[in-house]
Design goal:
215 residues, Rossmann fold, 7 helices, 9 strands
Length: 215
């Protein structure tokens, strides 16, 4: 199932795939919920689905803006090798310099990436959560040491309950020691999935991105 409506500044009826409704259904590994951020990730998750011996429903969050975003394109070798990554770490970050890790999902990654470049920030790593469910601890094994050393900020949308559904907030806290903190950065809870004003949407998005890099 492809859910194309992401939070992209359109009207309320075009601003939410209602991820939280599918997360409420998740239990005992019954379904899969993913949000691929590159063309290769999209290809590999469909390929994985086709090759699974035991088929389970696959829910794919597919905001339309990524279809025409040059940064979301993938080179040929990304299609012909590798596979779907539930979590994508930040290969460009120098782990020795990282003092903060931003965790996000979907297209907001590219906004955060642009802001980091604009700020010339070498102390922040940006990770992408590509699979909301099921959550496999082995996916975090290469990142666990960094998680224990750096404070984490999150980029999920609270009004869509990705954060409050106990999908990542509580689980990440269990991976941290008492010396580090987990902080939510995003829009406040809202009865409507969109403001209905593109100008206000852009203002909110700018506050969100800048807030992610603030102390």
């Amino acid at each position: 199932m492809l859910l194309p409506h992401g939070y992209e500044g359109q009207g309320a009826e075009h601003s939410s795939a209602r991820i939280e409704r599918f997360l409420q259904l998740c239990a005992e590994g019954n379904i899969q919920v993913v949000n691929p951020s590159t063309a290769a990730q999209y290809f590999h998750v469909l390929r994985r689905q086709g090759r699974q011996q035991i088929k389970k429903p696959l829910i794919v969050i597919t905001p339309k803006s990524l279809l025409r975003l040059p940064e979301a394109a993938s080179t040929i070798d990304r299609f012909t090798s590798g596979g779907f990554l539930p979590v994508i770490g930040d290969a460009s970050a120098d782990e020795a310099k990282v003092t903060r890790v931003l965790m996000c999902s979907g297209k907001v990654y590219y906004d955060l990436l642009a802001e980091r470049k604009n700020l010339e920030d070498a102390n922040t790593a940006i990770w992408r959560v590509e699979q909301f469910y099921p959550i496999r601890r082995t996916c975090w094994s290469t990142s666990s040491l960094v998680l224990r050393r750096q404070p984490i900020s999150d980029g999920f949308k609270r009004n869509q309950r990705t954060w409050r559904m106990d999908v990542y907030g509580t689980r990440l806290l269990k991976m941290l020691d008492q010396k580090h903190s987990l902080r939510y950065v995003g829009r406040p809870p809202s009865a409507s999935p969109a403001t209905g004003s593109h100008t206000i949407h852009q203002m909110e998005q700018q506050r969100l991105v800048k807030g992610a890099f603030s102390d």
